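Hey L., structure's done. Input below.
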Amino acid sequence: MTVIVRELRPEVRADAEGFAEVRRRALPFMLTTPDSVRHDLTHSHPDARHRQLVAEEDGEIVGTAQVGLAHDSPEPGQGYLNVYVHPERTRRGAGSLLVRTAEEYLAAQGAARLFAWVLDEPANRAFAERHGYRPSRSAHFLRLDLANGALPPPQSPPPGVELRTAADYADDPRPLYELDAEATADEPGDIAAEFTDFEAWVAETWRHPLLDLELTTVAVVDGRPVAFSAAYTDRAHHRYGSAMTGTARAFRGRGLAKLAKNASLHRARAAGYTEAFTGNDTGNGPMLAINTWFGYEICATEVRHVRELG
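Output:
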């Protein structure tokens, strides 16, 4: 049986469906749909040089890779490749071929340092190390049983704080862009990110097909958004995901992000979502504590691996 690697064709429905199915099987803790796969490819920033690769065996998509440059980092020359193979199609060469193809592409784009997320399992880590990658920081995936778990009771906002939804900013999302940019800049991680392009953020983030504007909740003080919890939803599978939760620097330590996320989770459960997922850097103690308070439990861990080229 021959394995080939090629680029995903966004206009071909079967390609997006095959890509999404491999991601769901290999990484069930993250929300992925055919529409989100196509959106990520066709609406990425041009400077990201983003590509989606598929490994195909006898006409069946058995592996995937997301490849590109960290264009929003102040440090140039950083690339990423995240490779996942269908759990029932491993050890057939798909993963190695995806890695080799991705590395060649990124080297041609000027990348000098490559980052890859790898599930914290012996076989996965050994695979990464065989290909020259060394382990770096780690992150947890967490799951909450929305159907049967006991959420903390709804909380009333403190005086001077109002809870709104992202839908209230449909006509002008710039205030949420500015808040997202400030919160993202302080996220722990190997690659720093700086948002400088509002139109790109609108195309990539605000119009993402998984973003649920009605469930994304915003804490507002004096008319200004100061904390938020962004919600992704996959209605077909009744799954909810926390895409990002953050607070403006001047308002941290007041429990506003927890307030927003609690309201979002309660409304998600009322809307019929049965599972909630989120992810946290293992060094992000405050956010891990918040998610433990909600009842989330760690269900898997990924370790970011790094390779220097040249």
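Residues 144-301 form a domain with the Aminopeptidase fold (CATH 3.40.630.30). The first strand starts at residue 3 and ends at 7.

-- N.
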